[in-house]
Design a protein that fits this description.
Length: 206
């Protein structure tokens, strides 16, 4: 039998559940009103945060991808084409690799913005992200002032992609319809349900 510990009851939690879209009742203290406001804000964030992450990540990819269609505009152009040249043993010149990379990034961006074909889009994203870190190993003198602890501007541009990778992981974790659960009690119940499974004789209650 699985038992979920109760979250301490407060008037704010009671009203947040019963009337989440209505003004706070007059009986609440200032502390209760602030708690109710916090609950509503956290609930709104839990409902919209993943979509905001997905769309904003898509905008970044699409924007930076479009720039690469215009030679000399993207700050990452030289480093990206040099890396692709090394990976292909010089078989893919910059005149070819740059438009291919631009189309790749634009496809990722459009897929994330639209939310369509996310599994395929995320494969493209993680493959592209893996390639962006290669210059740190291939060209340390071009990406670090003092290897390996003091990156230059190009190196910082690459290292910040760790944030994009983490964002992609969050989008991927919810790509099958999952949601963020803002309530600790509901989250514990969901986690225990997942780990225990729906076995005969298992009874869930609060």
């Amino acid at each position: 039998m699985i038992q979920i510990n109760r979250v301490p009851y407060t008037p704010a939690r009671h009203w947040a559940v019963l009337i989440p879209a209505v003004r706070a009742p007059l009986g609440l203290t200032l502390t209760g009103r602030l708690e109710l406001l916090e609950i509503r804000v956290v609930s709104w964030l839990a409902h919209h945060a993943v979509a905001a992450l997905r769309v904003s990540l898509g905008l970044v990819f699409f924007w930076f991808g479009v720039l690469k269609f215009f030679p000399g505009v993207s700050a990452a152009e030289a480093l990206a084409t040099h890396t692709i040249s090394v990976l292909t043993f010089g078989l893919m010149p910059a005149q070819v690799s740059l438009p291919v990379l631009a189309a790749w990034e634009c496809a990722i961006g459009l897929g994330l913005i639209s939310g369509r074909y996310l599994r395929f889009v995320l494969v493209l994203l993680f493959a592209q992200m893996a390639g962006t870190f290669l210059p740190l190993a291939f060209f340390p003198h071009e990406t670090f002032k003092a290897f390996p602890f003091v990156p230059n501007l190009e190196g910082q541009y690459i290292i910040k992609n760790l944030v994009l990778v983490s964002t992609g992981m969050v989008v991927g974790a919810t790509s099958r319809g999952g949601r963020i659960i803002q309530d600790a009690r509901a989250a514990r119940l969901a986690e225990q349900t997942r780990t225990q499974g729906r076995r005969p004789g298992v009874r869930l209650y609060r």
